[in-house]
Amino acid sequence: MGDPVFKPSGDVPAAAIGDDPSPGRLLRAAGICKSYRGNGSHIEVLRNLDFELDAAETVAVVGASGIGKSTLLHILGTLDRPEAGRLFYRDEDVFRYDDPRLARFRNASIGFVFQFHHLLPEFSALENVMMPALINGQSRQAALSLARQGLVRVGLEERLNHRVNTLSGGEQQRVALARALVLKPALLLADEPTGNLDKRNSEEVHRLLLELNQEVGMALVVVTHNPALASYMGRRVTIADGKLTETG
């Protein structure tokens, strides 16, 4: 993919933008706490959790269902706020932002791929991938160019104008991957990205994730039950008693 022309809005710190070439730590979570209440119960999911991630590093979050893996990913991606704790991107405490500013930061700096691709079925592959760039304030022409580059890179040059509901499951997940990376974010968060795919398509997504990690220099955090995908990551961690533990 070619480098996008990106002009950050005035209130998003330049050091948080994905094309910052400076090496070193990208993310630091400190003392993260998150619990849920319901049916008279109080469940502590994350308890004073700490986590650090370097630029371009790859990490798999593994373990049984219900231990808080997706909760952690949502907090690292600023989709959810913790009850306590701080989250630093390039030493900027992003949970001090109000919601609109946090949304702008998230759009510019973080890509997401989920088990269920969350594409808009009535739109084409190209239109779906354009969305983050348009939200970011890019012109339609620039967004179109970036989306086309991304789809070609994931092998969908023959599917640009196909509505996503006519694509196979593997193709839809590649569209979701192109959309996540259209602005070359510093961080890609993936929650069971191959959970609904067969072996062949899973291996294709694995390959693309690793290649794009190298090409774009993005950090990658993947929640997965897939041991093959986890084995490709530089680090593997799990959650025990609400805290992260290294597994290998």
Helix content: 25-40%
Average predicted confidence as pLDDT: 86
Major sheet attributes: 6 strands, mixed
Cα separation of the termini: 32 Å
Rg on CA atoms, Å? 18 Å
Number of strand elements: 10
With strands numbered from the N-terminus, the spatial order across the biggest sheet is 6-7-8-3-9-10
Alpha-beta content class: alpha/beta
Description:
This protein has 248 residues and is α/β, with parallel strands linked by helices. It has helices at 69-76, 99-109, 125-135, 140-153, 169-180, 199-216, 227-232, and strands at residues 25-38, 41-54, 58-61, 84-89, 92-93, 110-114, 187-191, 219-223, 235-240, 243-246. A hairpin with a 2-residue loop joins strand 4 and strand 5 (92-93).
Secondary structure blueprint with pairings:
Blueprint: E1 25-38, E2 41-54, E3 58-61, H1 69-76, E4 84-89, E5 92-93, H2 99-109, E6 110-114, H3 125-135, H4 140-153, H5 169-180, E7 187-191, H6 199-216, E8 219-223, H7 227-232, E9 235-240, E10 243-246
Parallel strand pairs: 3-8, 3-9, 6-7, 7-8
Antiparallel strand pairs: 1-2, 1-4, 4-5, 9-10
Summarize the structure.
This protein has 7 helices and 10 strands.
List key phrases describing it.
248 residues; alpha/beta; six-stranded mixed beta sheet; 10 strands; 32% helix; disordered N terminus
